[in-house]
Request: fold
Amino acid sequence: MTEFIYLSAWGTVLLLVFLGEAITLFAAYWRLDQMEHHFIASQFVATDRKRLGNGPLGRMKRVRQIGALTGLVTYPLMLERPTVMEAERFPVHLKKWGAVPRSLRRIAFMGACMLLLSLGFERLCTMVSTPTSDLKLLYVAALIACVVVAVAALLVRTYVSFFKLAAIESFLKESYFVARNQRVLGDSVYGRSCRLYHISNILCLDYGYLQASDPEVIPEIDRFPLPLRRWVIIPARMFGYSVPGFVAVYCAAMIFGVFA
Reply:
């Protein structure tokens, strides 16, 4: 029965991914031209049209790029500020063709992570309950430490996103992207998390990149209070180091046959 539930859960994850891709494919052939028509001032969409072409994968990629402009802004898109500004005026009835597949992929990713964690926890319980070597226990302890650090970082970031975010954003009033994220991403758990994630990014970016993408924020970063900076940076680094650390420890254990 447990195995059936586990397989059904993985089937649901794959179904969500397939459904998201199906919606993207539909939008690529029946909504893409309407979506691209709203981007006039910027050359970003026009460049993507020429670079990616009109094949199925190219058109789907173009839909995802437009969808990304209406969500969390990544590093490359920060350099396309005019395009992001145009995306704020994007019609709601077209925005959903990028937002819905993105939400489905996000749910599928979170579900896959939860399933992998449950599988890892089950294997860990089995491993600990049977006689094992000291070396294996050492690797298991290292993996547990990485997971604990990652969970602690996520909990701290959740706390900061609800109880410190307003104070943090009050020191970045001149930043277009911080204000844009407030308008676009909203006050949901995911929206607040994305807003905090973006702030942690801009606090770590070099000034050359910020000068090209969000120059108004540079003086504010110079005056940004150290206590609030720690609330933003330390959890981000904890999570950023724990995930590669987990992968490195696990891969090392597999390479040296510790978990064989």
The chain is about 80% helix and 0% strand. The chain has a mean pLDDT of 88. Residues 2-100 form one domain.
